[in-house]
Structures are given as structure tokens and as C-alpha cells.
Amino acid sequence: MIQQKDQKGLKGFFEKFLDKDSLFLNKKALQESYTPETISHRDKEIKKIAEVLAPCLRNEKPSNLFIYGTTGTGKTVSMKYVIHQLMTLATEREVPLRAIYVNCKIKKVADTEYRLIAQFIRDLGREVPPTGLPTDEVYNIFYKLLDENKFNLLIVLDEIDYLVKKTGDEVLYNLTRINPELKNSQLSIVGISNNVVFISSLEPRIKSSLSEEQILFPTYNAIQIQQILRDRAEVAFKESVLQEGVIEKCAAYAAHEHGDARRALELLRVSGEIAERTNSDKIKLEHIDEAEEKIEKDRVLELVESQPKQYQAVLYSILKIYSGRKDVIFTGEIYELYRTICEKADLRPLTQRRISDILAEFDMLGIINARLISKGRYGRTREIAMSVPSSLEPKINEILIKDLSL
DNA sequence: CGAGATTCATGTGAAGTATACCTTTAGGCTTAA
DNA sequence: AAGCCTAAAGGTATACTTCACATGAATCTCGTA
After folding, report:
1. Which nucleotide is nearest to A114 (CA to C1')?
2. Is the distance between the Cβ of A135 and the closest atom of strand C smaller than 7 Å?
3. CA–C1' distance A313–C24 (Å)?
4. Rounded to an integer, what distance in angstroms lies between the CA atom of residue A196 and that of residue A242?
5. Averaged pLDDT, A345-352
6. Which pLDDT tens digit goes with each residue over A21-33?
7. Distance in angstroms (rounded) separating the CA atoms of residues A80 and A339
8. Which single residue has its CA nearest the C1' atom of nucleotide C28?
9. How far is the CA of A334 from the C1' of B5 (A)?
10. Which of A36, A211, A346, A389 has its CA at a distance of 20 to 30 angstroms from the CA of residue A338?
11. Which sequence spans correspond to the domains of chain A?
12. Is the pLDDT of residue A180 over 90?
């Protein structure tokens, strides 16, 4: 917070900020949205994707494709990379090809059947209302859009397991069955999932249709991550701003988390930001530790802040009980406290049924750790514990109190 | 003592409801001929 | 008479509620050793 007396110096501060040499050359290279020129250690996978999808350049329908592997193994980047190349070539050669990338995990965008199809339509350049239309009607608009113009459509469904978990596999069934109805265009689906066993949980007919081709992305080892980091760092940072061992340490942290390259890159970026902010002329090892903390903190706090009020009230009850007694909690206790909190926060309390679902969602988000247990004679319940670092609890508490105006 | 039966506290699926939003339709008003 | 606007009617998706049944191990019950 900048105090009154400092305000005169604000201009000076900005000037100094501008004059100061940035450690970064091109920070974008470390951001998640960045698609690098070349992707290391994924040649085989990328080639395979390309092989599967190539027919669409000849206006033939490529096989549906299913890609799986744990987080941060480069599934999304590789896919985006191939799409990018395909699209460039397609425009060059005037091949009628379009690609839609959707992340099904994003709430309120693509987490129901209706919203998913609506999102496709929007991506194809037509507006549809957020609700109110029959789902059939939305499908019809989609068909028509496809049939009006002749082109090949490539749909990439990232985190497809979330979609199925929430809405069932009917969507996939409908999508895989669209093709025979289309006269002009063709539709291919690429599903991406972190969950390795996901595909086997599908109904056989959908399973076979979706996974005409499958590609597994193996995890990176520490050496590979190091190289990925070096490649990106070269683009992102100015020369010799990295202290000896920084790359190795980032890689080690990430390898710890089963080879998650995304985390490693984020770690490196945030370390750079911290170094810059503290006026260090180099990124040092201790910046990484700080970054590690900051990332987790930001992730959790942002998540907490973005939750709807009801969800926050539930979380507040959990936090309140949990921080008073560092032990597992049961659903009943939470619900009881939740009701009194609703009263204080001027909220209409939801039913226990609903709270049960909300708790399950928190579990999925990784804010809490819930386990279904039976206490025999004393019933059955979820055994719940907070799963965020306890150092964050006061901060979360603060946010919740503010948001719920308690 | 041990095999079933019982029990508790809540999970969970299905169906129903409230709300917000959409399109269609019918009526009323305006306008131009 | 045609055209335009508005409000009501009729329909949907979504978030939530209600209802009813499922769960599963600690505990109880009761026949048997």
C-alpha cells in the first residue's frame, strides 16, 4: 500500500521502473498460453498426432483421437502446436479446415452439454443465448452451421474427463454420431485427459468411436524438464540472469511432482518476477523457494475468491472447525455450523443434499480432502480435512470474512 | 462366541420446483396509401 | 392494410430441493457350544 507521503515519489518510481533493465526478454515464453517453435522430447507424439490428423488437409475425415497422460506432460501444447501448423498450411493451401479448442474444466463455459455445443457455435462465429433454447435446437444450429458451409471441423476437448463426470457421456455419443447426418462437412474429435483410466470407464460404443487412435504421453524425467526449461529460458530471459543451478532446481521441484513441466515453467517465471521485484540482477535459488510458495498461495486464494457465496460459506465452516481442531471433520458438523453462518451472512441455507455435492466439488478442486468412511454403528459420512498449507488459512479466513461480510 | 440382524448418519439417484432466460404469437398502435 | 412494437404465453436449462433408497461397519441379538 502506498502511503500519502510516498505519492509524490510515484512518478519517480514508475520512471525508475521503466529505466531499470528487465530480466525478461520475452516473458510470454514462460506463460501457459505460449506455444513454442519446437517442442522438445515430444517428437514421437507430435508426429503421431500429425499422422492421425493429416487427412483433414486432403479434405478427408481423420480418425478420432484420444490423448492421455498426467498433468504437465505436454498434451495441450503439443496438440495446440499441431493445430497451429495444420491451420497455417490449410490457410496457405486454402483447405477448408477449422479447429475448435475447448477446455471442459472451465466452469460456466463448457461444463454442460448445452454450454459445450453453444461454445462450439460461438467459436464458429454465431451467437447463441446462454440458456432458454432447447438443447436439441442448439444441436440443430450446430448442424446447420456445419452443413451450410463445406469444411472439416476439428474439435479438441481438453480435460474431457471432467465433462463426462459432470454430464455423462451422452454428449460424446451425440458428437460421434453427427457425421453420417452431415452432407457437406465432417467432424473429428480429439479428446485430451489427465486421467489414464478414463477411457475404460466409457460405454463401449463411445469408447471405440472416440479412441480410434490413442496416444499416451509419458512423463518427463528431470533431465528432459531441464532441457525444456533451458529452451524456454533462452527465449524468455536476457543473457546470464540465471544463477547457476536455478534450472536444475526448478526441474527437481517439478520432477518431484511426477514430471509436471507446466509447473516447472511456472516456477521459473514466478521466480523471475520475484527476482525482478526485489531488484535482484540475477535469479537466485532462494527466489525459487519463494516462487513455490507464491504459486500455491495465489492458486488457492484465487480459487477461494472466485467461489460463489454459498460455496464460500461452506468453506468457511470447514475452515473454522478445522483450524480450531486439526483433525478430520464430518459432514454433519459442517452442515450445522454452515446453517448458523448462513444466518449471520444473510444467506438462504441450502439443503444438506446440496452441501454434499458442494463438498464433493471442493474435493475435486483439491481444497479439501474428503474420504468416504463408515463409522459402523455411528453411520456413514465423509471424513474431511483441509488440504491447503496451514500457513494460508489466516489469509483464506480473511477473504471469506470479507466476502461474506461477517 | 459368532453369524446375522440392526442401526446410524449420510451418500446418492431420480424426480420435482423456482428462476432466469429464450422464442413465438397475438393484440394494439402507428403509418402510409 | 401493412408494419412495427410490446406483452403474454409457452418452452428450456440450471441450480437447487424433496423424496426415497443405498451403504457398510460397529453394535446388538440370540442360538449354540
Report:
1. C13
2. yes
3. 30
4. 36
5. 94
6. 677 878 888 888 8
7. 46
8. A377
9. 32
10. A389
11. 43-216, 220-298, 307-404
12. no
